[in-house]
Each structure stands twice: as C-alpha cells, then as structure tokens.
Write a structure and sequence with these properties.
The structure holds 2 protein chains of 2 kinds.
Chain A lengths: L1 H32 L6 H17 L4 H24 L7 H23 L15 E3 L2 E3 L1 H23 L1 H11 L1 H6 L4 H27 L6 H14 L5 H22 L7 H12 L14
Antiparallel strand pairs in A: 1-2
Chain B lengths: L6 H16 L3 H26 L7 H19 L3 H23 L6 H19 L1 H4 L5 E2 L3 E3 L2 E3 L2 H24 L1 H11 L1 H6 L4 H27 L1 E2 L6 H14 L4 H18 L6 H15 L4 H9 L6
Antiparallel strand pairs in B: 1-4, 2-3
Helix pairs in contact in B: 1-7, 2-7, 2-10, 2-11, 2-12, 3-4, 3-5, 3-10, 4-10, 7-8, 11-12
The chains are: A mainly alpha, B mainly alpha.
Chain lengths: ~290, ~300
Amino acid sequence: MLAEFLQFLFSGITVGATYALAALGFTLIYNASHVINFAQGEFIMLGGMLAVLFAQMGLPLPAVLLLAVLVPAVVGVLVEKLAIEPVKGAETVTLIIITIGASLVIRGLIQVWLGKNTFSLPAFSGDEPIHVLGATLLPQSLWVLGITALVVVALWYFFNRTLQGKAMLATSVNRLAAELVGINTSWVLFMSFAMSAALGALGGILITPITMTSYDVGIMLGLKGFVAAVVGGLGNGLGAVVGGLLVGILEAMGAGYISSAYKDAIPFVLILLILFFMPRGLFGGKSTDRV
Amino acid sequence: MNKRIYYGLYGLIVILLVLPFVVPNNFYLDLAVRMAINAIIVIGLNLLIGFAGQISLGHAGFLGIGAYASAVLPMHFGWHPVTAMLTGALASALLAALVAKPIFKLKGHYLAMATLGLGIIINIALRNEAQWTGGPDGMPVLPMALFGFEIGSDRQWYWVVAALLVLTVWGSLNLIDSPFGRALRALHGSEVASQVVGVNVARYKVSIFVLSAFSASIMGSISAHYIGFISPNFADFFHSIELVTMVVIGGMASVYGSIVGAVLLTALPQALATFEGWETVAFGAILMLCMIFMPRGLVPTLAARFSKGDDK
C-alpha cells in the first residue's frame, strides 16, 4: 500500500521536475513579452536528442550536458531575434502562431536530421535502484530532482539578488517604466528566450535516461509544462515549480490508481478544473483592467 | 458596411457553379470538396477569433465529436445519419456552452487553454474507447442518406458542400452586419467600452463560441460521411492548429479571407508532398513568414493595398 503510493510519488515528482523546468521557461518568456511560447516543448526535445547525439560521439558527460543546453539556448535566441522581435506588439494570436511555426521547423529539422527513431541515454550514475520503504528509486531520479532544485535556487538568487535579474523582473511588471529607468528591454527579451530554452533543454536531458526521447516528444511535454505554468498562475515562478510537481504527481497517481490509458488526459482535466474553480491558478494574483 | 461586400458572394457563387465543369479530374474535385469543408469550418472559427478576439486551440475536438457521432451512432445503434449528425452537433454546442460559461467571465486568453485541454481530452478518449471508435486505427463510416437518396459520388458531395458554403458566407455576412455582429466588433475593439454601453460581453462571446462549435461539428459529420472513414488524427491538436492557421493566414475578421486561407492551406500539403520528409519544416516556415510579413493575413493586407484610403 505505502510502497505502491511511494512508487507513484517518486515517478510523479521525477517527471514533475521536468514539467516544472518547462513551466519556468513559459513563465520567463511570458513575463518578458506576454508571449506564450508554444515552441517550449521543442527545446525539451532538443536537449534530449542533442544529448544522445553528443554522447554517441563519445564526449564526456559534463561536455554533453553543457553542449546540449547551450545549443538549444542559441536556437531560442535565434527564434526570438528572427521571429518574435520583428513583430513586436502584434496580436496574441499572431505571436502564438509564430511560435507554433517555430516549433514545427525545429521538430521537422530534427526529424530530417536524426530520423524518427526512439533514442535512449545512459543514466548518469548507473541503473542500480535504491530501495526506500519497499519502493524503488532510480539514481537518475535523484539527479533530476537535485539539479532541478539547484536550478530553482540559482534562479531565485538571480532574480532577487542580482541587478540583471531585478531588471528582468522590473520589465515584467511594467515594460515602459523599466525602459524609462534605463533598462534595456530588448536585452531582457533576449535573455528570457535564452534562459527558457536552456531550462527546457536541461529538463529534456535529465529525463531522457528514464523516459527515452524521439523527435516528437516535445508536443506533449511542452503542453504539460504549459498546463503546469497555468496551474501555478501564469507568470508566477514559484507557482510554475509547484504546478510542475503537482501535475507530475497527479499524473502518476492517476495512471497508477485510475487508468494508465488516460494518463495523458489527467493534466488537461486538471487545467479545466483549475480554470473553472480557481481561474488565476493556485498562486496568481488578482488583476485589474485599466480603460 | 455596404452592399459591395456582397459582390464577393456573387463571385463565389459563379466560381462554385463553373468549377466542377473545368476541373480536369476527380482528384481536383476531391480537393475542392475538402477546401469547401475547411472553408465553412474556418468561417465559423473566424467569427470567434476575428470578431470575439478569442482563440480556440481545440476546435478539431468538435469536428471529432461530429465525425464520431456520425460514425458510431448509425454503425452501432442503427441511428439515421441525419439524427446522428444533429445529435453530435447539439452535444458539441452543449459542451462548448458548458466550458465557455465560466471561462468567459474571465479576461485574457483562458479560452485558448481550456479549449486546448478539451481538444486533447476528446482525442485521448477517441483513441482509448476502441470498442466504439476502433481506437487509433479509426473506423469506417456508413454513407449519408437523405429521403432515401444516398449521397455517394464526389460530384454529389460537391454540390452539397458548395451550397452549404454559399449559405454560410451569406449567413455570416448578415450576422456581421446585424446588431449581434456590431456588438461583437465593439467587443473586439474594447471590452470595457462595450460593457459600458450595455453589451453583455460574456453572453455574446459564449454565443459565438457555441455557434462555431456547432458548425464545426456539422462539418465534422459531413467530412466523415464524405471520406467514409475516420481516425482520431482528425480530432488532434495539430488539426486544431491547422484550422487556426487558416483563419490567421487568410485574415482575421474577414469572411473571404477565411475561404482564401482554407483553400491555400488545404492545397499546401499536396504542393509540399514533393519535398519528401521536409513537409513539416516547410509548413512551419510558411506559417512564420506569413505572420511576420503579413500579420493581418492575406486578404486584409491585399485589400488595404488596392484601396488605399478607402476604408471599408
């Protein structure tokens, strides 16, 4: 009973950590530009696929990690420079379509380049499971949780203790006011795309040894990350992390106790319920409208 | 708005009347039928996106409900296809109303998220309830019969769909020009202002969403009967995105733009088939380029170019 529950909990928070990183990515870009970046999922996919590619080339693990995070970050910046910046101030629908176009281009290129096969990455430190109260925990899960926790702490430090981070926060509160006090808001937009692509890619790399990867995993992972961001209250960093873990845990519990066939539906049922009963998400503030 | 807006409708009728006599073979007739079906769906969706300023990312879910109602009810329960189609459409409308009511009390793009979720749930259900729907492999659909007369050939379907398209265009132009349409446009301009002058914002948005869901469901049923086979891909997220793209590329808030968008994007996969393997990249690149260089869509951009200073 307890063992089973723990087992679902472990797998839930592991996947949930990936959703949390993706949700943080959505949050960063949403705060900087009010764009909902539907290409976020493709960065998760890129991270995983590139890590597999670099690992097959025989690079050492730290180099694999670094490159598989940096390359998607560059891609994220390219998307921002080439597709988002030229249409500044366009309607939300237009921006959504552009990011969907970007996601198709990224997914299509990877499909042409690396094929449609499913790939796996060796776990960072072996596959010997750890036994906890009758449940088993993969060492890779500890990597996922540990690195996610580090990233969250680093982000917290960045936004609360550094000038650059505070500049990004200021821009999200009021872009015009931020520009007036001398903040370079194009730089903020640039940084938010780079960071959110890097976060997504990192999540993708960490989870690949457990779930495997292929060119088309980005759609579902991205959408679930989006659900996590909305559950936490779109634009709220803490909310994104809690939302990600919550979505992961509920999905794992639902798959275990209710129906594994409907596993993928659970986050979306959750989002409908949240929208009906707590429309601003768990952590979203109240908003007022100015005429 | 003036009578000139109806010239396009007359032009459309002429094109639709001549088309079946000039197409070289059935392949193009089939393409024309699918273009017309998409055009009708897209006009409905455009009323929502272009006039109510709300985006639905799960419209293929409503298509799916219609299509599977027309497939499952006659096949497993012996219903008449017309009853099945109407049941599907009513179910879609009801579902749309249920979802939209609480959502439209909120500001912002929450409908996008809610419809996204709804569409995916519908798709997963269609894939999993294999005893009814045939699961991921899909299922055949019995032919449509009306007053004992079976609609079978591509040419018969062409006339049915063409008539529906003309009706839809005529109905939408009238709707836009009615008090209802003016309220919708006011809404897109400024919600607060329209509320102040007494427009019941939430009610109008719900009505237009329900209408577009109803129309999508009917066209889902018609597609199912026309193709004779249906699979869950018909109701997936990618199909929803394709429909939104048709709206945006043709031009938001433009009825004729919807037709242009539907025609172009229905033809696109055929044209891209020659780039084997590169279709996805090409489709994505075209989307981005269109949105970057013509954010208002084709028809409004071109219309503005040809009639400078002549507003509406």
